[in-house]
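User: For documentation purposes, I need each entry recorded in a consistent format: the amino acid sequence on its own, followed directly by the corresponding structure tokens. There are two entries in this batch. Please keep commentary to a minimum and don't merge the entries.

Assistant: Recorded as requested. Entry 1:
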Amino acid sequence: MDQSSESRRPIASRDTGWAKRTAAYLAAHGVSPNTISVFSIVFSFFGLLAFYADLHSSGFGLHLLWMILAIAFIQFRLIMNLFDGMVAVEHHQKSIIGGLFNEVPDRISDTFTLFGVGLLVKDMPYGMDLAYLAIILAVTTAYIRTLGASLGCPHYFIGPMAKQHRMAFVCAACIVAVFYVPVFYYVLIVMNIGLLITCWRRLEKIITCLKQSATK
């Protein structure tokens, strides 16, 4: 993990007492930022398994359990995303390969989560296609952000479907899905529209940044 202050996603919980204490504990016990980043993949994979298990289970009780677990694993993934940066920056444990661990696990984690959502609507028209498109566009939003940074612009984390927005959207859908599973189908449609808007907004920001830099 290797994050400068300019490349860090704004996260309000970073300044909370529990987050600071936990990050300090992890750093003191030798847990590296890169290891924490890998655990984000692990939790996302467990989330995928929860979606898969729900697809093949029956009964309201089990369905409720799998939706709760899916939400929990998504949140654990996001918590790993919080702590890897805190341990790297606040506790001075950056590494030369940290940039890879900053980006690659997020893309894998997004893929697991969105693929899991697609499984639950695979029998609806173009259900899995919508999931595949969401995965592609989620990767594209990150590509555009990092491309802009490589050209000398800031990292633009704007939405409306940045990572934290996508995960919050899926978690909210899990709550609704306790009673109405097809909600995931409409979530994917809205998410894809939002991802297209996000790509466009980030590109606009980068274009403006590059034009302003050229006039200086």
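Entry 2:
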Amino acid sequence: MSLLQPFDRVKPFCGLIFAEPSMLDSSLKRLEEFLSPQERRSDFMPFTYTDYYCAEMGKPLFRCFVSFRDLIDPQFLPACKRLTQELEAGLAVANRRRVNLDPGYISLASVVIATAKNHSHRIPLRDGVYAHLEYVVRNGRLQPLDWTYPDFRSIDYMNFFTQLRRDLKDQLRRESAVAPD
């Protein structure tokens, strides 16, 4: 019989889609208060995989990912998704979002993002928030799944998350090397 254990800590991140780079600072400040200081930020990448957000946010759109320093329990995800929805609404003008925020985390085994949209492959977490498994790790490498979003299949995204997984491994190694007093 397996024994229940606490979850391994994970590295949080947030994906941001925006037309105005100025939307980053106010969004990230609140996320840093909730999570921890930023650790890594991707380059701005053109977001051309869908027109879904264009009518609301304009064109051209960009995507950026930001990771946060402190490792946390993966159960943070529903509360973080609620916070990001509040941030999106607070930054909206005339009921039109100016930024889309996708919180998630990377573990040694997978990359998960939060969503409020149900689908057959999504797992309910709490309060209307679902876990969307974006990648799994097989043979030490991130692998997309049948339902992985097209933009997450891009080499730029894969490179960012591969580096983020290295950051996580290094951080776990450093923290386990610290001997208690």
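Summary note for entry 2:
The first strand starts at residue 11 and ends at 18.
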